[in-house]
Amino acid sequence: MLTERVFMRKTKRGNIxxxxxxxxxxxxxxxxxxxxxxxPVSMQNxxxxxxxxxxxxESSLFKxxxxxxxxxxxxxxxxxxxxxxxxxxxxxLSTVQxxxxxxxxxxxxxxxxxxxxxxxxxxxFVNEHHKDTYVERKPGETANDRNDRAIRxxxxxxxxxxQQSQLNIPKAKRIRVVLLTNDAKNREIxxxxxxxxxxxxxxxxxxxEHPLLQDKLKHKTYEVxxxxxxxxxxxxxxxxxxxxxxxxxxxxxSFMASRENYLEGSVNVEGIEKFVLIQGRESxxxxxxxxxxxxxxxxxxxxxxPSEIILQDEENDPGDVLEEETEILAVKAxxxxxxxxxxVGIIRRKWRQYCGILQINQVSxxxxxxxxxxxxxxxxxxxxxxQAEHLKMQRIVVAIDNWPRHSRYPNGHFVRAxxxxxxxxxxxxxxxxxxxxxxxxxxxxxxxCLPKLPWIITNEDYxxxxxLRDIFICSVDxxxxxxxxxxxxxxxxxxxxxxxxxxxxxxxxxxxPGTALDKEASLxxxxxxxxxxxxxxxxxxxxxxLCSLLGGVERFAFSCVWEMxxxxxxxxxxxxxxxxxxxxxxxxxxAQLIIDDPTQNHEIAKSLRHLNRLAKILKKKRxxxxxxxxxxxxxxxxxxxxxxxxxxxxxxxxxxxxSMVEEFMLLANVSVAExxxxxxxxxxxxxxxxxxxxxxxxxxxxxxxxxGFEIKTDCGKNLALSLDxxxxxxxxxxxxxxxxxxxxxxMQAVYFISGTVQNEEYFHYGLAAPIYxxxxxxxxxxxxxxxxxxxxxxxGADSTYAELLDKHRNSExxxxxxxxxxxxxxxxxxxxxxxxxxxxxxxxxxxxxxVLFVRKNALQILVPKFGLEGTIYLxxxxxxxxxxxxxxxxxxxxDEHTQQCGNIIFHSFDPVVVRLSLDSTNVQREKLVxxxxxxxxxxxxxxxxxxxxxxNDDQKASDKVSESTPKRPIGNADENKPKKKKNKKTKK
Length: 988
What we know:
By secondary structure, the chain is of the alpha+beta class.
């Protein structure tokens, strides 16, 4: 059966265009119920019969069994309850499914997984193509009203259709079809039409055998703008926000909450060089990290500066009151201030599900409790739950529902429990969820895109590619690396030149544009590396097998080959898709041993020595151009092969071979960037590193001055020269710390599309490169896949497609890549922190450290042995009410970046001895505690531990610091001596 709709449209030229849309209706679409006797038997098979003949009647509202028909808004608003098996025997209308897909891809994906679970008995009914359930849109009817009518029509048809098959069953026992809708108007119309219709709240509360399901209900409330007890100003309406942005009175941007001060945040506004500072609860005005907000910039005389105080909301629920903030946020008049604003409206919420623990209400029998997120940037959330005792020692997931003006914290609902607190698997799941890392199992749709095994290279493949199997190519990677995406070679040519090749895994051959695999890889954007596992961007068949450049195995590659002279000058560059056969897959240490062993003169050894020599020349040239050699503390764990728990921790060691590989990867990225930008000037995917504002360098400059060095920051080259000159013979770690501090002053490097910014903004500050991209790691970075496709199109090895050349679409893709890259870095650091905590459980150690930063109320300490950073919190000065009577008083000097207690002064890079132990008293956030041992401050420092007999192999940490202390004393030497007291022996 065919139905037609005819439209008349007037073209720009004034012509009348007739448009005919055909819609096919069928009479052979079955209802999917086991009780049905009227659907065509010839069209049925066992897989089509999904709805059971005897659904359980668990609802106290109905004395008969029922099938459920949820409408669109029910699924969008209450998706969490549908994850429970208690909600089953559902008829999913195609109208609803398409609406959900259109309005929220995330909810659609989750709901599609729920529908596919076997015990749920969910049947998808294509009502839009059934001859009895399709409805035309009436003149003047909105699309939403038409869809509501289509849902009611299908529900009523289903109920009447099933009644015909139950004529021999008493009416009181017949299966009925019930519409679930929270739309009061739609529910009333349905009931007037004879349809059984109830709200989700009514239905869930009627499931008396599942009382805990009520915890998952999302509760909607509406703001009362005239509320007398409002704590926050009202948000502007969408129309007011739109008008304000249009007129320039308001600005919009993405809100980022501070990790160090819960009363502070910033907004990244396009067109303003610096982030706009937001300070104080009222100015933050219920914004949550990630929200897109509208802000009003304050007059310049009201601008402020970021607080030096590290401040966390640690207190129990104080009720709906706001604390006094004047002292916390006070800023000295002479401090350089930054643009400051207030949030006046929310343009788009970016709420997600959050992990944390329950802070139980002390009132007996109360169902209202506080949820404390694991992520410090997220506010506490008020939830209602009837299972507080069961959940109090578990990690749970909560979703935010709303944040009324009169409430200090937002309201939310319980979603699910993850597992016991402190359990390693649970904590790993938490850090993945908290950093929004996609880590679900690969869908069947994605897996269907993979090549079938056994996979072989065909004769056609050899003909289309450059055959480089005879060249002595090798890879150099960290130990245990299985996703090997780069390999190198260097050989002497008959003309006296050197041929150098960088060979990168040809992942784009296996991931074709627009496929489910391509979409999933673009969503994940990057592989996430944790201490004991990795979350792959692509399935393991590709990452560790077919795309990995394993030794002795033929693989597809994308090769960048240069001809160079012996001074590393590039004379010619070629790009081609190739077939390679790596002669060896080595670790950095193995490659270094070959280079350093003069007895080894085979082809791989010759290649490595050439590469190492050229890399040193390339590095020297980069540094002369102003490239920065920065540093960051990196930890390497030795993990138990069975338990996967850390058994040893140490700072990561760097070798010449690390630098060798890095130099050629950088060179390949620069070469490819120049090529694709030349070929595609409007749509090349590049990477830039913005120049940091000079104010970012203040801590670095002050720290250098305190140590007698002038750090010049007017340009990258002068900064690099200043860092090179800052050497202290009595402290070999000083220069590394200075470079770590310089790293903290940098801006984030980001992906962008060439046609969206000016050419001078392409510059990569850290590398001193006019243009740069990512080409060398397509197994673990989606940006590299896009670059491969552009490069392939430019050399005729592959064809372009519309999306590849769409700069606006790819700019949105860059936003996702930048976000996922940032979250992957945070997740990696969180994994290191988790494993550090596991390592220090039951241990107490004293180690030499250095003051890295001096804050207004804290010292940030670096322990080189472990590459660890931690914070020693100081007492607030006497004029602050939080100061403890009798405690030592620390005075912060903002100009000098120092803390003084008596005649002991702490500067950046001063040596200290600290005691490291794990504090597990806060079950939500176990933390590694740093306590000051030396210099000794009465009433603040802890006394050195006495070593047990078992500790004789270790040197005393206090002896270590004495040997490495610079000539300039930290304070009076006599005052630094602790009083002799007997301590209990503490085993490490």
